[in-house]
Every structure is written in structure tokens, then in C-alpha cells.
Amino acid sequence: MKMRRFNFNYKTFIFGFLALPLVFLFVTSCFDITGVTQPASAKVGETITITVNVNGSTETESNQNYKFLRLGMLAPKSWDVANKATVRFDSDVVIDAARPGSGPMIVDGGDTNFWGEKSKGLDGENSGNTVVDDMNTILDIGENYGESEWVAFRSEKPVDFGSTKDKDFTFTITVEVGPDHSGAQLGYWVGSHQNGFKQENAWNGSTHTTPAVSRHWDTFFEKIVITGAGADATDLTGPAPTFTATVAAGANGYTFDDIITINFDAKEGYLGANTALYNAGEVYMCATALLGDGTTIAKVDRSASAKMTLSGADTWTKTIWPPAYFGVSNQIITEIHLNFQNADGSIVVKNPGYGTDMVFGEKCQ
Amino acid sequence: MRNILFLTMTLSLAMFISCDEADSFDVRQDALVDYVTEINGTWTLHSVHRDGTDITSHMPSATGLTLQVEAGSFTLGSSNLPFPTLGNARTPFSSGSWSFDDDYQPTSINFTNGTDVIVTSLAMPLYASNNSSMGLTFSMGCGATSYQYNFKK
């Protein structure tokens, strides 16, 4: 058996030794979101402008920062941010027309063969996924219960911050407020294609004033109140809605002048658990009507007319014509508030997670 | 050419020969008279459909609704069901006058309290007299949601 002799190659060693600092120059860059200017409230259909302030640090004074900037935005899916938002970034750096310090951001195309759109996971290695897929897998959705999504943008051209060690720049997002939700927590992620989602502790020499999640990227979340979203709108920062109770009529909806059917599912409690009326022998609907003049009429006496009919496995139903049910004439009913009780009222089921009556408004297409 | 001429003349002759005087029929004198549709009486609700779905059994008191129709006037019995004249989009009324859109071949009934006129479609044609079924089709609050009430007498 012939022993293989180890050949020490001086050229390889010297090249590797010299190249090591260059590698660091490429990989060491920090992003820190220093603040977000976002409206506290906005109306559905309104176009709002959001500013994300970022400090970028190259850690070393080099100009080896030829990178695509990336911005992620977390918003309700109904906002359709990918199609309805425009984003740009701005800084006072002007190095080269091919590597501008300002310019538009475009929706990441998801081309995993293009070096600028390859995604790197928490370990800093190419994940083989699209950026937006990794973004929605790796990042959380803040205080939203769901129905939100991260949308990935990248700078149209690679960006060069030059030899400036710390550089402040801004992302400006213009987006239309979408329907379906009365509140949400919007989120922002900033990074670059170079390190993607690589998780690494902050650099010791960082000048950042706020701790970043990773030295290579940062996130920021901010709540927004949304008006004009309709009675069915949900607050994404509240408990997830359940299907404990539903109101239905025809396929196109109802007003409270219609015959409506109230369904109560005793199996749909908080976070998927059964309600306290699971396996109840009788269920009564306790309802309060809110009238157009602001007054209310309550029908919470658990009388025979409030008794619900068992329609399936722990599902109960009641069909009413609200004006007659509440004894309302020549008045508009704007909301109906519901809770469900057993025969003696010792068990009361309200909106799971909220502890208040379930509120229903008119829904007519 | 001569054959064509001969053939044309033969066919023409055959067509003229085949013509005959139309048959005549005796028609009853009263068959050509239109009669005013008559629905007077007390109608009781038999079934309720919402967007084509029978929901009668979901409303135990549904069949309690009565519609008293007399010459030119109507009166609704008390009920916990909607009726076109009871919507809260206007001042509701449970009695008043009525008329067909066409007294002979009606397709709708106009209910009025003297101020508001509520047009309600007939779900099925009516006979001139001796009607025992009558269907009304209408919408209430949400215009896209339709109801059909089937009355019997």
C-alpha cells in the first residue's frame, strides 16, 4: 500500500491567508431599524405613507458592499401589499450610477437562480427557498393572530454605501389600506442579499443604539387602527375570531329587516376548545338589539321564544325576523349582540377570548 | 329548358289545387271575454322560502300569518314574519288598499297605505276566480335576498 504524501502548497496558503480579511469585508454588515413613522390610524381605501429609518454599518471602512438591499413588510393579506405598495430607499450616498445610494425597491421575483434573489437561512447558507418563503417561515407575525403575510422587496440595483462606516437611510412605503380588519400590527424587516436571514450576534463595535435581532438584519413592529372596515372586520391584534356563532340569511347577506338565522356551535370555543355549553341539553339565545337612535332592546329572559333548536352535533340554530323578535317598529336595528346560556343561566357563553357579547352588524352585498 | 318550364308549371298547378278554404270553428261567445282576477278572501301562509330554500320549519309561527283581502283593501294578521309592507325602511303598515298591475292578467300586486306603494310580484299566475293558491315574491332589507310566501285559501 502506497502512502499518500501530503504536499504543502505555499501559494494556496498565502492566497488563503490574504483572502481571509476580504471575506470579512464582504460578510460583515449590520442593519438596525432606528425608527418607523407610521400613521396611528387610517381608513380603508386610504393611501398611507410609512417611513422606515435604518442605520447601516459596514463595520469596516471598505467599499466592498455591493449588495441588494432587502425590505420585508408584514401586513394583512387583504392589503395585497405585493401589488398595491410602492417602496423606495434613500440616502445621501452617491458612489456610482450602477450602485446608487437611492432608488426604487421592487417586489422580490423569487428567482432562486439569480444571485441577488437567493435566500440565505438562519445559518447563512443558501436555503434554496425564495426570500419571501423564508421570510414567512423564519419571521414571526408580531401580535397578529394570523391573516398576515410578509412581502419581500429588494432594491432594483445593488447598493453601495462606500467607505462610510455608519450610514442612515430610509425606506419610504406607500400603500393602500385594505379591508377586512379594524386593527393590525404592521411589521418591517431590513437586510441584504449578502447575509439574508443569517442569525449572528451583534458586532461588538456596532454603533447601534437599539439592539438588533441579528447583526445582519432587524425587525420592527407597529400597530395601526383601521377605520371604515365594516362590522365584520376583525382586529388582528386581538384574539383570533371563532365560529362560535354566525348569522346567515341568503347568499348575498342580510340586513336586520331580513329573516336571519343564528347558528351557535358549542364546539367552537376559545382556541378550538369546546364552549361551556358543550353537551348542554338546552341552549337559549340572549340577544340585545342596538337601534339607530342608540338605544337598546334586550331579550335576555331565556323565554320559550329564545330557545334554540338542536340542528346537529352540539350546533344550535334559531331563525328570527329581528323587528318582530325585538318588538321594533319604524326603527332601524344596527347591531345585534348575542350570548348563549343554558336553561337556568348558570352557564353563559360569550365571545371566546373577549368575554363580551358577540356583535353582528348588517352584511349585505 | 323546356323540362324546367314544364316542371315549374306542374308544381305551381299542384300548389294551387292543394289550397282549400280554412276550416271554421264555433267559438263560445264568453270565451273571448277577459275576466277580472279575483282573490278576495282570507289567505293563510303555507310556506316560506328564502333564496329558494324552504325555511318554514325554522319558524314555528310562520304559518300563522294571514292576509285578509277584500275588494280593494287588505289586512295582515299579527305575525312575527316580515311582509313587504312591514319593512322599517319606511313607515310600516299592516292594512291599506291594494290593486293588481293588470286586473285581467296580473303579475304583481300593489299594496299602499295611501302614501307608499309597495309592489309585490306574483310567484305564479292566478285564475280569474276560485284561486286557492297564491305566491308572493319580494325582498326586504337586503335587496339581493328574496322571499317567496305561498298562501293557501
Your description of this structure?
The complex is a heterodimer of chains A (365) and B (153). Chain A is built from four helices and 24 strands. Chain A is mainly beta. Chain A has two domains: 212 residues; 126 residues, Immunoglobulin-like (Sandwich). Chain A is elongated and about 80 Å long. The relative contact order of chain A is 0.15. An eight-stranded antiparallel beta barrel of chain B has the order 1-3-4-5-6-7-8-9. With 153 residues, chain B is mainly beta. The longest helix of chain B has 17 residues. The termini of chain B are far apart.
Oligomeric assembly: heterodimer
Number of discrete helical segments of chain A = 4
What is the highest CATH level, the class of chain B?
Mainly Beta
Termini separation of chain A comes to: 85 Å
State the distance separating the first and last CA atoms of chain B: 75 Å
User: Greatest contact pair?
Assistant: A-B, 29 and 24 residues
State the total count of DSSP E strands of chain B.
9
Give the uncertain stretches of chain A in residue-range form.
1-6, 12-28
Summarize the entry for a quick read.
Chain A is mainly beta and 365 residues long.
Indicate the topology:
The complex is a heterodimer of chains A (365) and B (153).
Chain A (H helix, E strand, L loop, with lengths): L9 H18 L2 E8 L3 E3 L3 E11 L11 E8 L4 H4 E6 L3 E3 L2 E2 L2 E5 L23 H8 L9 E8 L10 E11 L4 E12 L25 E10 L6 E2 L9 E4 L4 E2 L5 E6 L18 E8 L4 E4 L9 E4 L2 E6 L1 H5 L6 E9 L6 E2 L8 E4 L1 E2 L1
Parallel strand pairs in A: 2-12, 11-13
Antiparallel strand pairs in A: 1-3, 3-10, 4-9, 4-11, 5-8, 5-10, 6-7, 8-9, 11-12, 14-16, 15-24, 16-20, 17-18, 17-21, 19-20, 21-22, 21-23
Chain B lengths: L1 H17 L22 E10 L2 E2 L11 E5 L2 E4 L18 E6 L7 E5 L4 E6 L10 E7 L6 E7 L1
